[in-house]
Amino acid sequence: MVTLTLSDQQIVDLVKQLPPMAKQTVLDVLLAEREAWWDMTLAKGEEKLRKLARQRGLDWNKMSEDERDNFIDDLLHE
């Protein structure tokens, strides 16, 4: 199999040449990848917050939304 190396701009130019339905397919794939990345990022961030809460003797699961917000605010201002 031959590997083709293209610049980002070349890829953009190629996508621009696609018919509208094919462009939509490319967009759908990219959005799905971005959503998966975002979900993973949120999960990692929440796990870090759970760990920080545990280190401070708090239970993230028992905290109200306001308590969580205050906890995060305190972290940001440390």
- How is the main sheet built? none
Number of strands: 0
Tally of individual domains: 1
Element order: H for helix, E for strand: HHH
Helicity, in percent? over 70%
Cα Rg: 21 Å
Distance between the termini: 54 Å
Class inferred from helices and paired strands:
mainly alpha
Mean pLDDT: 95
Count the DSSP helices.
3
What shape does the CA trace take?
A: elongated
Flag low-confidence runs: none
Beta-strand portion reads under 5%
Describe, in plain words, how this protein is organized in 3D.
By secondary structure, the protein is mostly helical. The chain has one domain. The protein has three helices and no strands.
